[in-house]
Write a structure and sequence with these properties.
With 321 residues, the chain is an alpha/beta fold. The chain is built from nine helices and 14 strands.
Length: 321
């Protein structure tokens, strides 16, 4: 059995390209029916803490994974992220445990990449403005993947990127990408500034008590991607189309039955449903998170990992107590 910890996953990610991550996301979405993904299970705790348990299986590659992810507020003098995740990887046809893997980095990575994939697929063709809210690690992954995918297609258009100001995250973010040509960063004091007259709005805010802006702030042709699904509930009532990674996971949304149109991204990729049809449609994409993306990223990193096996004994014959 291998132990592939956070630092190892981080090193392995640096050995791959953002376009690789993008292709992994698309491969899973296109072939979603070849995976098995039972519903996500949750264990609520006091003070808003929780665990999510996410199983998945890919028999084509003989893999089963179980991810345990949770949010737990810090204790006094404790230093760690509030979100933590680990994953077990099994050989599907024997049940033998092959790896214990960190899933914190994988979760952050695939979440940002999925958002970038949705942006590329559903943004209008002549877009030139982005509004980004919540400029942490997930948004950084989103932007790396989005820009690299554009450049990979020789798309070097000029972009105005509006950054919502919060604890000087906008300064760090702009400095992180200061080497990029044809991109102008603008700092916005309000959500209205970041969203009004913007073609692509992406939010990675993890807490929102109300909608960010009024309906009138969303221009015709806008694409909105709420990575954490918060702050854009008013859009559900008047946007032309809603897309999602899995309809069953958002069926409980308050206005689900009032969506004008809803479809899985996988059906668009497989030409069963239409995506964006013109530059006037207002589109919102809710990616609730797929355990099969965690599985696929884990598979790729497991194959790349060069770590020593550890001795983990399992019963190799019938035994009696």
């Amino acid at each position: 059995m291998k132990i592939i910890d956070f630092e190892e996953i981080k090193k392995l990610a640096k050995k791959t390209q953002a376009t690789d991550w993008y292709n992994w996301v698309e491969e899973v979405l296109k072939n979603k029916d070849r995976f098995v993904m039972p519903p996500k299970m949750s264990i609520p705790q006091d003070s808003g803490n929780y665990y999510h348990i996410m199983p998945a299986m890919y028999e084509d590659e003989n893999i089963v994974t179980v991810k345990m992810i949770g949010r737990h507020f810090l204790k006094e003098n404790e230093k760690r992220p509030t979100m933590m995740a680990d994953m077990l990887l099994y050989e599907a046809d024997t049940g033998i445990l092959k790896a214990l893997m960190d899933a914190e980095y994988i979760t952050t990575l695939r979440t940002g990449v999925v958002a970038a994939h949705s942006a590329i697929k559903f943004v209008k063709k002549d877009f030139d403005t982005l509004g980004l809210i919540g400029l942490g690690n997930i948004m950084t992954v989103f932007f790396i993947t989005f820009i690299n995918k554009l450049r990979d297609g020789n798309d070097n258009r000029k972009l105005v990127v509006k950054l919502y100001k919060h604890h000087q995250q906008e300064i760090r973010f702009a400095e992180r990408f200061s080497n990029l040509e044809n991109i102008t960063f603008i700092y916005c004091d309000t959500y209205e500034e970041a969203i009004t007259n913007t073609d692509l709005v992406v939010s990675a805010v993890t807490k929102a008590d109300k909608n960010f802006v009024a309906d009138k702030c969303f221009k015709q042709g806008v694409t909105v991607i709420p990575i954490c699904t918060l702050g854009f509930q008013n859009c559900d009532l008047f946007f032309d189309k809603v897309f999602t990674d899995e309809i069953e996971q958002i069926r409980g949304f308050k206005y689900f039955n009032k969506f004008k149109s809803v479809a899985n991204v996988s059906d668009v990729l497989n030409l069963k449903k239409k995506g964006r049809e013109n530059n006037e449609e207002q589109i919102i994409v809710y990616n609730y998170g797929l355990g099969i993306h965690d599985l696929y990223f884990a598979k790729k990193f497991y194959e790349l990992a060069d770590v020593n096996d550890v001795n983990y004994s399992y019963p190799k014959s019938k035994y009696f107590i």
